[in-house]
Amino acid sequence: MSSSSKPHHRDISRHLTDAITSGHFVVGSLLPTELELCEHYKTSRHTVRAALAELQRLGLVSRRKNVGTRVEATRPRDTFRPSLASVDDLVQFGTEHLRQVQSIEEVAVAAAVAKDLGCAPGVRWLRISSLRLDGNGESDPIGWTDVYVDPAYSEIGALVQESPDTLVSSLIAERYGRQIAEIHQDVRADTVRDAAMAKALRIEQGAAALKIVRRYMDADGQTFEVSVSVHPADRFSVSMRLHRSEP
Predict the structure, then answer these.
(1) Is 101 in contact with 130 (CB distance < 8 Å)?
(2) What percentage of the chain carries pLDDT values higher than 70?
């Protein structure tokens, strides 16, 4: 760790993950206390807690009051179950999972894709195709995402390459000032028919998958980005919290 600046919680979680997977901390042992980790990494308790929460989400540790953080496994879980209840939750999801760009190109979409995007066939979009990686990036990819944006946002391609842990919508907001006001999300069962996608995801062509289409809209209700994500069925599920309306 560099001493020139405070580490991000993702840096700490990756460092601790490496220590666990390498056997430095064995299954059944306790990690240093929060205060000891704060001192070691020269950072705040809030940052350390966020890092430990990430390790717990990966199934590497368990945490109990008055006991500490115990190592439970040497390999992260492959299955990821996000809880997405708001735009902020989705943005946080994007910051926690690395994007490995496969291609960036302007395309005229075919009829099947146009149906997902809610446009006419042949409309041109800038397509950013990426693998999404969980944890330290060593486990199987959790999904493949094609992000479609207006070709006028051509500079986004370079920004995407430079910021692999930032949502494309956040980059658009920073660069062009266009903010998310609402996201429409459709989730449905599908199969992975594309051979190149199946190979990148390390699954068989035709395997079952979860397909998620998200349409990002601004305050005027205009769609400025659409993402189409395909997740192998055994690696991803979506959890939502439902609250009873007040009478």
Answers:
(1) yes
(2) 83
